[in-house]
Each structure stands twice: as structure tokens, then as C-alpha cells.
């Protein structure tokens, strides 16, 4: 008798990781594979609070939770303290969780599918003799770079702290944009201890990647074939949004404010700038005001996702004087937008984004050009692809005071929206992305092989 295959999916407990992995889990369930999703207790409570009763009823996967060992979750950011805490308890608690599931469930867990950022938890699967699948939730170029670290150290291009020795550009292959010394995924200029932490973290990925049979990536092969070619066992199955018919609310840590969709319905086609900087980006009050003034000065209509904690150390009343009154009518502000539905809306003209990988691949899937403002990690890589490789966006630049000024924002918005070539390129990328997840497309075929592997 053939046993029903049962996959335990384990994300890093952060918004940009939980949401795409939940989509993947839903897709597995739609393909006849039983999927159980292991959230930290803190994250599970947030997701359930943001899900409607209908979503909960229709949820095709089982949600379970484990204790992540953290007393508090400051802004849901993941730095050394949080990762250390996770490392201490996660493996042990996941092992317990699997034992509990196996005791109470008719179908025991047969595969553990983990986010590579918590890749050490694959040890549990290894010890229990289960199938192991890793998932990389950023772009393939940043994984290709992480996998090249040992060679770069050996060649004395970077030192053991991740700093460049010769100050030269790092080039992995002809098709991959070069890295400047200050743009490496782990670079945190002026914060050597933090940089060392991120660097060791990237280096550790090398050991994890050696073991799993498959490394899934939320991209499609043709989008960055050069980087994909450098990663052993990679299986690009994205863009995940396009292969999913799931209600986009699932996996969100906050309720999505859908009033912006009816507002968008009333706007002319291709007229609204959508601004969202992901789940963790924070600004100084001064910088926040410059964004507000820049949007106002641009003269365009806009939809802005402003998380309640987006301004560091400020009260919720942080808009410039009378800003809200002045932009009423042409500006809509929500705390958390239904981003994928917004990007799919015909009124949206461009995406002012921090270039997190989910936002990048969601923007590509919907054919919108980008105005890029990367802050950390792989966001710089994504910006380079958007601006230099795919040519679907422009980037804002800091002035001599380290601020992105209102004038810079206004000018770049104008330049982007009058650049028809970028819009054409964006539409072409969207079509390629659709092709890749359609019957016979590369991601479609890869997803089929994944299902076959899991069912074997
Ligand atoms: N997102 C959303 N509503 C918002 C802002 C973001 O649903 O108002 C979602 C977005 O669709 C994406 C995720 O949050 O799936 C953010 O992930 P990304 O990798 O872009 O950035 P991160 O939050 O990890 O920095």
C-alpha cells in the first residue's frame, strides 16, 4: 500500500519568509501532498488573527506551532540575538513536534522542507531518515554569491570577516552583475560585529546546501540563468504568486486593508504609484517626511503602505503638517496593503519598493516598473538586476547628507513614468514569468518534478 506523503514546511519566522512558503505549502496540498506548516507560536497567532473565518475554513494545510524561545519579537527583525535564540531551541522543538504529529496522525511526516535561512533544522530530517528539501526565498544571485564564499576567501578576495581585501569588484560569471565591496549581501558598513554575523550566516549556508536533494527557489530559470547554473540541485519553481490560486491573505502577519482596491477602481488606468517597503524597513522622521513631500511634489496619485512602526521611535502622528489634508483625493494610505492584488490592478503605474525578493518577484509577475530603494542584504542585488540587467526600473540616490531628498523622489518618479521602454520591458518580463509557470514552462515542469520526488 502506498503511504500518503506528508511534508512538514518550516519557515524562518519572518513575514517575507512565511508568506511565500505558505503559498508553496498550499500548492503542494493542491497537488495531493499532505502539508503541515510549522510556525513559531508568535507567528501563528498573528497569521490566525489576520485570516478571515472563510480563509481558515478553506485552508488546505494544517497549521502547527512550536515555541521559538524568544520572550519578545522586536519589530519582527532577525539579528544575532533572535537567530541565536532560534538556533538554541528550534531543532529540539521541531523534533518534538514531528514526534507528536507522527503519534497522532495516520500519515507520518515523510519530508521536511525548510527555509535555507534556518537550514540547520534539516539535521532533524537527517537524523530521522526523512526526505530533505531546502527553499531559498531570495534571488538566486545572492545564493550563488554565498556559495562562492570559500573560494573567495581562498583567493584572498575577501577576508574571514567578509571584507574585501583588494577592494576589487567581485565577478562570479559573465551574466551576473559585479559586486562592489560595500554591496555584498552581508555588508553592514560601520557595524563590523553585525557584518561578521551576517557573513558567518552566509558561509554556513554552504554546509546546509551540501545535504538536501533539492534547493527550491522562488524564481524562474530564464530570469537569471547564470546564477541558477551556479547552484547545485537548484529547482526554480517561481514566481510562486502565479502558480497559486490561494487567497493572498493567508500568511500575512497583519490584516490587509482592501479599501485601497475600491479606491484603485476609481483611478484612471496606469496612473497610481504604489509605495511599500516590506515588513521591516524603518525610516528616521526626517527621511519619512522627505518621502511624503516627494510624493506630494510628484503630482501623481499614489497608494502608500505605511506600517504603524515604519518611523523609528515616533508616535503614530508622523506626517508633515497638513500633509493628509493636502493629498486627500489623490493619495491613499493604508497600514498593510493586499500587495499582490494592488500590483495586479490596472490603475497601478509603478512600484516604489525596497526590493525585497518577494516584492521584486511580485512586481515582475505583474509587469510594473520599479523605483528602487534597497537598504540591506540581497535588496542591493535585486536592485542591480531591476535597473541594470532587466532594465525595468530606476534607483533613487542619497544626497551628501545621507538622505533621499523629496526632489530626488519627484525627479525619479517623473523619469520612470515617462520611460516607455521600461514599461515595455516590464510587460515582457511578466509574459516570460507567466510562460514559465504555464503548461510546458520551466517552473511548471520543475514543480511537477518536485511533486514526483515527494510522492515517490
Ligand atoms: N506585503 C503586503 N502588504 C504590504 C507590504 C508588503 O502584503 O503592505 C507583502 C508583500 O506582498 C511581500 C512581503 O509582504 O510578499 C514582503 O516581502 P519582501 O521580501 O518584499 O520584503 P521583506 O518584508 O522580507 O523585507
TrEMBL record:
Pathway: Secondary metabolite biosynthesis; terpenoid biosynthesis
Pfam families tied to this protein: UDPGT
Gene Ontology molecular functions: quercetin 3-O-glucosyltransferase activity; quercetin 7-O-glucosyltransferase activity
InterPro entries attached to this UniProt entry: UDP_glucos_trans
Keywords carried by this UniProt record: Isoprene biosynthesis, Transferase
Gene3D superfamilies: Glycogen Phosphorylase B (3.40.50.2000)
GO biological process: isoprenoid biosynthetic process
Statement: the UniProt record of this protein carries the keyword Nucleotide-binding: no
Keyword Transferase: yes
Protein family (similarity comment): Belongs to the UDP-glycosyltransferase family.
Name of the featured protein: UDP-glycosyltransferase
